[in-house]
């Protein structure tokens, strides 16, 4: 009798190799700069706990301003206008040298804890082998 319960089998994991990522950039944006600063601290702390190398964390000096001018009245009084403004603040965080499994765990954790009103965009740069056709031509050039 085996040591596993009935119906469960111990199958080998697939031999798929982990993808390596040179860097992962996370861009977060919100209307409140204090929330972004707090969330940056949270993600950096989570990365330190997982042993992830933290790269550059930065923010543009100015917010992005989107202004909209409308008439106060629908039909007349062209001189009377109202101006609305939406400010969007950005922060960029870079994490370096990650495996796919570590990245999935890290992204799932930080995306589950995104504050209200914050949008996140993730850009990954992976490391791949050269195709065999290019690899052969590079060898020929290096031998010449």
Automatic annotation (TrEMBL):
What InterPro entries does the record tag this protein with?
Ribosomal_uS10_dom, Ribosomal_uS10_dom_sf, Ribosomal_uS10m
Pfam families (alphabetical): Ribosomal_S10
Q: Which GO terms describe its cellular component?
A: mitochondrial small ribosomal subunit
Keywords for this entry?
Mitochondrion, Ribonucleoprotein, Ribosomal protein
> Where does it localize?
Mitochondrion
Question: Domain Small ribosomal subunit protein uS10 spans what residues?
Answer: 25-123
Asked whether the UniProt record includes Iron among its keywords, one would answer no
User: What's the family?
Assistant: Belongs to the universal ribosomal protein uS10 family.
Please state what the protein is called.
Small ribosomal subunit protein uS10m
Task: Name its species.
Answer: Daphnia magna
